[in-house]
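Dear support,

I submitted the protein below through the web form. The confirmation email said the job was done, but the results page showed an empty box. After a refresh the structure appeared. I'm attaching both so you can tell me whether what I see now is the final result or a partial one.
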Amino acid sequence: MSDEHDWSFDGDDIPDEPYADPAIRSGYQNALGRFIMAHNEVDFWMSAILEKAVQIIAPDGALNHLALGDFSARATNLVLLMRVAPHLCLGGVGNGRLHELNGVRNALAHGHFDQDRYSGTFEIVNRKHKSFQVKRLKNLNEASINAAAEELEGIASHMEAVHAFMDVSLGAEYFQDAPVILKSIELWELMASEDAKKAAEAGEQKSGVAAPDDAAPDQ
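What the results page shows now:
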């Protein structure tokens, strides 16, 4: 076969039409949507837990800032509260996985779905515009994204339950096998008592009424 310029070629020189299954892209879209929804649910419950937690241990609002900030900052604050206030019984929410799963979210939210039109395989491509670096993530696929979404869904369900019951008052007798929680209860009750005492003393000084310890002895 030749064209008007007498250039000869045959059918083998013509590249085949792309044959990648379009369902691959559709499957990725479904997995991505599921993952983002699950991540958003975790984000919501994490804020709700932090807001309730700081109100329990600091009703004056002194710790309200711990419930603010981006996902990573709030995830760190959640771990901090689990460490310093175990009596809140947060149940290890997040399983220590929140930062890593948030990293997956960032990669997916900002990455380009780059599908090979012939093989059907794809990669998530992240480009850093300040350095012109391109990072290709081969470990993210429909199966791994769905697995991460399922993990987030489980975390969100756990968080919802923790939020519902974390302010239920339980006596120390429920934690006889948990010495760390018992110590935490004792510490925070002592701190609350000290704060109340200081507030009472400040109020008495402001009103000009002497504290009972300073009262003059009876004649």
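Response: this is the final, complete result; the empty box was a page-load delay. DSSP finds five helices and three strands in the chain.
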